[in-house]
């Protein structure tokens, strides 16, 4: 029976493209972005928790602060708090796909600081203590900001949740500015 022309059946209301997309099953890209966000975001949050709370084998604020003072950051405990919060909060937001451009900026800023103060002097490869991992984390953060966090993210309800040049620019520029300020204090 052709229901399209059935006079006894009320027509189904038409859906807009956005309504249809919101109800469609997650794509492989959405799941892939979720996997990337959860892995990078939760690992960065854990790294920040090491600094802030001394868990997961971390040293906590006081010891991390002493290490940062040895690198020239004074007062070290304040810089440990800022770095730890950037990693912890930025990582959690990144994992959730919430405020993704700002979360990415936090991760980029921390990675730039790590490259300039610790790993940059050791070359590229992490086997030599180099910047390899820092570059990967920063590029993944900017890439997710550019692509957008996917439909399995809290940002899906907001315009910046679709990614784009502006979102990637926010991640790169704000991360760079925050890093430059930190390095020049």
Protein model, in words:
- The chain has 185 residues and is mostly helical.
- 65% of the residues lie in helices and 0% in strands.
- It has seven helices and no strands.
Please write out the topology.
Elements lengths: L16 H7 L4 H26 L6 H11 L5 H21 L3 H20 L12 H16 L17 H19 L2
Helix pairs in contact: 2-3, 2-4, 2-6, 3-4, 4-5, 5-6, 5-7, 6-7
Task: Give a short overview.
By secondary structure, this protein is an all-alpha fold.
Index terms:
mainly alpha; 185 residues; single chain
Number of helices: 7
Return the string of H and E elements: HHHHHHH
Proportion of residues in β-strands = under 5%
| Main β sheet profile | none
